[in-house]
Write a structure and sequence with these properties.
This protein has 6 helices and no strands. It is mainly alpha-helical. It has one domain: CDP-alcohol phosphotransferase transmembrane (TM) domain (Four Helix Bundle (Hemerythrin (Met), subunit A)), CATH 1.20.120.1760. The radius of gyration is 16 Å and the shape is globular. The mean pLDDT is 88.
Length: 175
């Protein structure tokens, strides 16, 4: 299906982004790859919903690739010295926790679908990261703190929202 093909393209953008950030040091090209990743995420979701191409595999595959890209981006930013390592710890903990919980729920035949706060958090993440990449290490400290704080707050709120949705709908979400 087309949405899963687009997700696979996005999966290929994960190492491409890392190469551009860490080997070629082409931050603007890395930013473009990140934007392309975001666009393919939006397009595959749109196609899946509007053309009734939603699959249980896609419900797991798409967020997995999203989380992989987000972790990849944060690792690259830490290696480049653009963000502090403690932010990596927070992002990895949150994303790995969601992957593990999603996997456990899937084994129990429960699929938690995406929702507006998860999508909003992803947009905020991409915007914050783009700001940090484009300004590299030249972003004023106060602005950097605000950007990071907003990103962390949105990620944590999305994680809490998914957890609450999962608890509320535990018996309703059988596949």
């Amino acid at each position: 299906m087309i949405p899963n093909l687009l997700t696979t393209v996005r999966l290929g953008l994960v190492p491409t982004f890392a190469y551009l950030m860490l080997c070629s040091h082409n931050l603007y090209a890395a930013a473009i790859v990140l934007v392309l990743s975001g666009i393919t995420d939006i397009v595959d979701g749109y196609i899946a919903r509007h053309f009734n191409m939603i699959t249980n595999f896609g419900k797991i595959y798409d967020p997995f690739v999203d989380k992989l890209m987000q972790i990849n981006v944060v690792v690259c930013l830490v290696i480049r010295g653009i963000i502090p390592i403690w932010l990596l710890v927070i992002v990895v903990f949150k994303e790995v926790t969601m992957i593990v919980i999603g996997g456990i729920l899937y084994l129990k035949r429960i699929v938690v679908s995406s929702n507006w706060y998860g999508k909003t958090s992803t947009v905020i993440f991409y915007a914050a990261v783009l700001v940090m990449i484009i300004w590299n290490k030249n972003l004023p400290h106060g602005i950097s703190v605000v950007v990071i704080a907003v990103m962390i707050a949105s990620m944590l709120l999305a994680g809490i929202g998914y957890f609450v949705d999962t608890l509320k709908n535990y018996n309703k979400k059988r596949v």
